[in-house]
Each structure stands twice: as C-alpha cells, then as structure tokens.
Amino acid sequence: MAPVGVHAQVGAYAAAAAVTLYNPAVTTPRDTTQTEIIQSHYLDVLRGIAALTVMVSHADHAGLMQIAMGTSLKVFLGRFGVYLFFILSGFLIWRSAQRIHRVGGLTTYVIHRATRLVPLYLVNIAFVVWALPHFDSAFQAQVTPETLLRHLSFTQDLNPSVSRDLNPVLWTLTHEVVFYVLVPLLLMLPTAFLPLLGAAAIVLSWTPSTMASFLALFHLFTVGILVAERRVVWGGLALLVFTAMQATGQPYAAEEIVARLAAGGLFMAALAAPVRGQWLTTPLRWVGVVSFSLYIWHYLFINILGTQTGLRALHWLSFGWSANDWIRGGLFVAMAMGISAVSYYLIERPSMGPLRRWLMALIDRSCGR
After folding, report:
1. Contact 59/302 with Cβ under 8 angstroms?
2. What is the pLDDT of residues 101-146, one digit of tens each?
C-alpha cells in the first residue's frame, strides 16, 4: 500500500495544476522572438527533467542510486517522466507539423520525424541484438523473429507480451510513432474536436483491442496539442477528468493520478510563467538536448553497470569510494551523461543535420525541383 503522504499529495497537485491551467498568461499572445527563445529553453529543461526522473526510477532498482521512500516514489518518478514526455510530444510535434505543413508538406514532415527518431533507434536495436550478449548484463534481450519484426515496425507495445523483450524502455516509441501518423490527419480537424477525441480514446481504451494501450495514453498528447493551440482550459479539464477516470481502481492509483497531474501542471507552469535567469537551468537544458539518447541507452547501461563486473569497475573509477551512495550515484549520472553526449553528437546530430538535408535534396531532385 502506498504511504499516506503520497495519497495526501493528490489534492495538492490537483489544486496547483488547476491554478496553472487557468493562468491567463498562457492564453495571451505575446511578442514572439524573445518569448519563443525562453520557451524553447524551458521545453528543453522539461525534457531533461523527464529523462532524469525515468533514469532515477530505474537506477534505484540496480542499487546505483538510493530512493529512501520506496516503491511508491519509484512508481511516481517513472510514470511522471513518461507522461511528461508524451505531453511535450503533443505540444512540440503539433507545432512542428503546423510549420512544416505550411511550407513543406507531408514529405517534409515524414523526413523530419524519421531522421529524428529512426537512426538512433536502429543503432540501439543493433546494439541489443549483436553487442549486448557479449556484456555481463543483468538484462538479456529475448531476440525472436516476432520481437524484431514488432520493434522494427514500431508496433511492440501493441503486443505487450513482447514490448519489453529487446529494451524495456522502447515501448513508449510505439505510442510516439502512432501519434506521428495521426498528426497530419488531426491537422485537418477543427481543434474544438480534439477534447472530444481525447474523451473518446479513453472510453475506447476500456474495450479489448490492439490499440487499447495507445488509446489509454492519447489524452496526454491531446493536452499538449490543446496548449499549443492556446486552449489551456480544455487541456486542463482533459487532464484532470481523464486522469481520474482511468486511474481509479488501478494498482498504485494515487501515484498514477499524481504523476499525470504533476506532469501536466509542471508543463503548463513552465510555459505560463518561466522564471528569469535561464542560466540557473542551463545544465538541465543540456540534459534535455541529449534526452532521447539518455532515455534510449540508460536502461541497458544500468543493467551493465549494476552487475558485479560493473560495480567493480565503478569501485575502481571512484578510487574505492563507490560504497558511498552520493559518490556512486554521482559517478553513475556522470557516466550516463557522457554516453548520452557521445550518442547525441555521433548519431542524433548527423541524423538531424546532414542526413536530413541529403534526404530533402534527394526528394527535390526526384521531383524535378
């Protein structure tokens, strides 16, 4: 059973979220340039927070970081991070798709989404299939034709029995890709219909179907879209109502409700009234920049470093001080950041830069432009 303190936070988070959601500053158009720069900064900060909370929730299981409050807090941290990612995706992908739709069309949208996601994803799967078996790791992938086909088609979480077989954190990318596919269709609808779609998705998620897992999460993407459209009140109501509807009666229901409300409240608060002095959050912004790499590699790294072999290496790198929780946790975070930075600069940036430009030029040549 969850601690009383966690249950008691539900009302507090709900109240804080409600105050934020109805803040008129979010819905009031502002001068663009400086505001957009500040907003972009804090969106990266939020991505950094989301990635770190997911990583910390997993690192505790391997003893690399210690969370004294136990299972309830771990559940909250993991779900909070994932839900914040989904809300951010709803906001960012919607705005990006609107801009691209005006100037580049569907082909440009597909190339942008593919070059952002696919190269690092494929490198990660290749590592799991060919390299991970040669490491001393607490997690070993279950590589079968079905798991490979599911993951290569981004449909792994539509069959939960295989969704965690290659890299357990990859399940979320099924829902990201389904959302990417839906966005061009959603752009054709009046935004007034989006809250109704969010409600319908929740109801449909209660019926057995292969899409039930996505439908149960779609309202989080919807909240991001509605905020992007400056319909913050609708976004707030969607988050509050659907969270209560879906989580009631589930295991860790309080943690589920608090995670969703906290993710939505923090997201909207950051956009409504970003604090001055961005330099204070610059480290978190950098984490946000490499957050996809951090998210996709951290679970595998934890399970390699958390073995006896990995802990001995950690002991050596810390000059014998790895028994100290702070030193062990700090060294683990530093190493995870280093791996993420290497992945970002060697895989992500070339994918979003030269590869994207090459594909766009190839399409232009093939179209005679």
Report:
1. yes
2. 777 788 999 999 999 999 999 999 999 999 999 999 999 999 999 9
Q: Which of 276, 227, 278 is CA-nearest to residue 20?
A: 227
Whole-number Å distance between alpha carbons of 222 and 108: 23
Question: Roughly how many angstroms between the first and final C-alpha of the chain, as a whole number?
Answer: 63
pTM score: 0.86
Q: Around 305, how many Cα atoms within 13 Å sit in the side-chain half-sphere? A: 28
Which positions ≥6 away from 54 have C-beta within 8 Å?
77, 78, 81, 82, 169, 295, 298
- The 3-state DSSP class for residue 64 equals coil
Residue-wise pLDDT for 190-206, tens only, equals 777 777 776 777 777 77
User: How many other C-beta atoms can be found within 10 angstroms of the C-beta atom of residue 74?
Assistant: 19
Decide: residue 335, CB within 10 A, 0-12 exposed, 13-18 middle, 19+ buried.
Answer: middle
- Condensed to tens digits (0 to 9), the pLDDT of residues 47-105 reads 999 999 999 989 876 778 776 655 677 888 899 999 999 999 999 999 999 888 777 78
C-alpha to C-alpha distance for 98 and 250, rounded to whole angstroms? 37
Single-letter residue type at 159: N
DSSP string, 151-205: HHTT-GGGSTTTTTSS-GGGHHHHHHHHHHHHHHHHTTS-GGGHHHHHHHHHHHH
In the structure encoding, which two tokens stand for residue 20, read together?
A: 């934020």
Domain ranges of the chain: 4-366
Q: What angle do CA 63, 167, 80 make, to 5 degrees?
A: 65
Give the residue among 334, 339, 332, 252 at the shortest CA–CA distance from 63: 332
Tell me the DSSP string of 7-20: HHHHHHHHHHHHHH
What is residue 4's predicted lDDT score, i.e. its pLDDT? 36
Of 229, 8, 210, the C-alpha closest to 238 is 229
For 68, 82, 176, 232, 242, the CA distances from 223, given in Å and listed in that order, are 32, 14, 14, 8, 11
Provide the 3-class DSSP secondary structure of residue 321: coil
Backbone angles phi and psi of 262, in degrees to 5: -65, -40
Residue 259 in tokens:
């995670």
Cα Rg of the chain (Å, integer):
21
